[in-house]
Amino acid sequence: MRTSFEGLQLPHMTVHLEEPRWLAAAQHGEPRALEWMFQTYHRSVYSLCYRLLSRTDDAEDAAQATFVGAFRGIEKFHGKSSFKTWLYRIAVNESLNLLRQRRCHPDRLDDAWPAEDSARDIVQKVAVSAALGRIRPESRLALVLYYWEDLTCEEVATILGISLSAAKMRLKRAREEFQRRYGGEP
């Protein structure tokens, strides 16, 4: 029975173990460290922004603004939460600002559906996307963070800047609102 992790490449584990070293270097302005942070988190930040905004151009703008803001303010990160949680908070703020500035209606569908999905999967994704687009942004945000980003209620509360009990209540109400629009669990 093998008990060692030697030789195994677990990306999430590697990121978690290497992050403090890269973060310290990034806080000292090391360009390679900033590039590592961008490469490590860009995909998940973009996905979060896309789920909140439903438009590729808007998601790209919000993700870019997230990293610009994070890199400009990285010395303000004190480790009270995980770096990913801090970065997600910036991404959420950028996405919400973009929604307010452009008065976007995130129920517009985009062409970003994977080609390998079956017709049934695509229909379900379209229905979920449409239902998410018809609920309040605060509700959509809570559902995306909890279900799609697989964050804990504590992490959702931190990102939203609310108490744990308020986050749980927001999730409960968001599920109810989504179910009224979609007719099922998110």
Structure write-up:
There is one protein chain. With 186 residues, the protein is mainly α. 70% of the residues lie in helices and 0% in strands. It has eight helices and no strands. Helix 2 packs antiparallel against helix 3. The longest helix has 23 residues, at 31-53. The radius of gyration is 18 Å and the shape is globular. The N and C termini lie far apart (39 Å). The model is unreliable at 1-14 and 104-115 (pLDDT under 50).
Which helices and strands occur, and which strands form pairs?
Elements: H1 11-27, H2 31-53, H3 56-72, H4 83-102, H5 119-133, H6 137-148, H7 153-160, H8 164-182
The N- and C-terminal alpha carbons lie at a distance of 39 Å
Write the H/E string, N to C.
Answer: HHHHHHHH
Catalogue the unreliable spans: 1-14, 104-115
Class based on secondary structure composition and strand pairing: mainly alpha
Outline type: globular
Radius of gyration using CA atoms only: 18 Å
Count of beta strands: 0
Largest sheet: none
State mean pLDDT (0 to 100 scale).
Answer: 79
Number of helices: 8
Q: Which strand-content bin applies to the residues? A: under 5%
**Overall helicity:** over 70%
Short characterization:
The chain contains eight helices and no strands. It has 186 residues and is mostly helical.
Quickly list its features.
disordered N terminus; 186 residues
